[in-house]
Specification:
Blueprint: H1 5-12, E1 17-27, E2 35-44, E3 50-57, H2 61-71, E4 89-95, E5 100-106, E6 109-112, E7 118-125, E8 127-133, E9 143-150, E10 159-162, E11 167-176, E12 179-185, E13 189-196, H3 205-217, E14 223-230, E15 233-239, H4 262-275, H5 282-292, H6 298-316, H7 325-340, H8 345-357, H9 363-372, H10 378-392, H11 401-426, E16 431-433, E17 442-444
Antiparallel strand pairs: 1-2, 1-4, 2-3, 3-7, 4-5, 6-7, 8-15, 9-13, 9-14, 10-11, 11-12, 12-13, 14-15, 16-17
Helix pairs in contact: 3-4, 5-6, 6-10, 6-11, 7-8, 10-11
Length: 447
């Protein structure tokens, strides 16, 4: 049984509740395993975070004594260290409709009353998952994924949707290679779905699809629900809602306001998925770092942005900015001379280290090499150098409008540079915003 429409509505409104006739929690270790069993519920709190509450009855005096002893014993956790897996529990639960739900890496909290007959166990969950067989009438050679995504997002809707009450452009159709995809815009959430027309495998496409659309619209798409049909199984995952803040928004690299802008989003998503073959790639990681700092202090934003540009260059443009052979010969000669000098060891090591670094690719050199190939404008290199120096040397921003505007112009110029490097890597040729120019005009990479 899939989620009912009223359950999806409740998830969106953060009022979702699942009651269970049986919940089992098992410690994630191989021996001397602790486990708990009993009825309970999983529900969303007012912030949409999934909460577990279950009731375990002690089966013996010995078990009760053990629990009481554990209450006053050390947890075994070491300050400053990553929590090891054996401190977590796995969950399997049967709900009132006969559906089996699972979750992993659950940290327990709870209380034991005295005299004790049982234990109330409480915890937060990041997600719960239900796996079931696909319907008999389904073609298992095809696969499908759909998401419910909270929040209002700027989607270029290019298709009319008719309902009993009205007709409106609320659907964005994307024709991707081997996939049919559409995004339906609702009042306070999105429905994103995709069908694999070629085979039964939907991963890693589903992750890459979320990444590509997120970057394209400048808004991190964090699902509340994921329903995936692949092979013989259908998987439903319900996620805890993350606290909504302005960090979920960033200036989009491409226009997405008009219906025909769906063409830009279509190409961007297609090129991203074709170039970035694995989810959580460095390029997505750097974009997410910039997004996460977008609502922070300008000085911190500048540092994250300029270092992310360095990261992109080192990861994807390693062959640019390498010193020419004549310069490398000079470095080799200088190294021999320095090695032969009778100077202090510390000074010699510092000089040799500098010469050694001179053999390598430098971000600045890579940018100038890209400029010579007309991939990026040279003026953006100068903007990046200025902002990089400010952010690296603890420049304190004065609060007058003139300096503030100059600082903002440099940030937006570097944001354009970051996007140009990204778009060039995935070979996107559509329209984009020129953040370094007055009023952010739209240009085309095909020009």
């Amino acid at each position: 049984m899939l989620l009912e429409s009223k359950e999806i509505k409740a998830i969106i409104e953060s009022t979702f509740v699942l009651d269970f006739v049986a919940i089992t929690l098992v410690q994630q270790k191989n021996s001397d395993v602790t486990s708990y069993k009993g009825p309970g519920s999983i529900f969303q709190d007012k912030d949409g975070i999934l909460q577990l509450k279950m009731y375990h009855t002690y089966e013996s005096q010995e078990e009760m004594n053990h629990e009481i002893h554990e209450c006053f014993s050390s947890s075994g956790l070491i300050s400053g260290k990553i929590i090891e897996s054996h401190h977590y529990y796995s969950l399997e639960a049967l709900d009132m409709k006969g559906r089996v739900w699972k979750a992993d890496y659950i940290r327990l909290s709870g209380n034991t009353s005295f005299p004790a007959t049982g234990k109330v166990i409480e915890s937060q969950l990041s997600s719960i998952t239900n796996i079931l067989d696909r319907f008999d009438h389904e073609d298992i050679s095809k696969s499908h994924v759909s998401y419910i995504i909270s929040g209002r997002h700027n989607i270029p809707c290019n298709k009319l949707e008719k309902t009993e009450k009205r007709s409106s452009f609320s659907i964005c159709d994307l024709n991707l290679e081997g996939y049919q995809c559409n995004i339906k815009k609702r009042d306070n959430y999105l429905e994103l779905s995709a069908n694999n027309l070629l085979n039964s495998v939907i991963e890693p496409f589903s992750h890459l699809l979320l990444e590509a659309v997120s970057i394209g619209i400048g808004s991190f798409l964090r699902p509340l629900v994921k329903i995936m049909a692949s092979g013989k199984h259908r998987t439903i995952t319900i996620f805890s809602r993350k606290i909504e803040r302005n960090i979920n928004k960033l200036q989009a690299p491409i226009p997405t306001n008009r219906p025909h802008d769906a063409t830009n989003l279509n190409e961007f998503v297609n090129k991203y998925i074709g170039s970035i073959t694995k989810p959580f790639s460095p390029i997505f990681g750097y974009w997410y770092r910039i997004l996460s700092e977008s609502a922070g202090e300008l000085e911190n934003k500048a540092l994250v942005l300029t270092t992310s540009i360095e990261g992109i260059l080192k990861e994807y443009y390693k062959n640019y900015g390498i010193p020419d052979s004549k310069f490398l010969e000079q470095v080799s000669s200088a190294t021999e001379i320095i090695n032969g000098l009778d100077v202090g060891q510390r000074a010699k090591e510092r000089i040799l280290s500098t010469l050694g670094n001179a053999r390598s690719m430098t971000p600045k050199g890579a940018l100038y090499a890209l400029s010579k190939e007309q991939i990026i404008p040279e003026k953006l290199i100068k903007v990046w150098v200025k902002l990089r120096n400010k952010s690296a040397h603890a420049h304190e921003l004065k609060r007058n409008n003139e300096e503030l505007q100059e600082f903002l112009d440099q940030i937006f110029g570097c944001q354009e540079l970051f996007y140009l490097l990204l778009m060039n890597h995935i070979q996107y040729t559509g329209e984009f915003f020129q953040f370094s120019k007055e009023a952010w005009p739209i240009s085309s990479r095909a020009n």
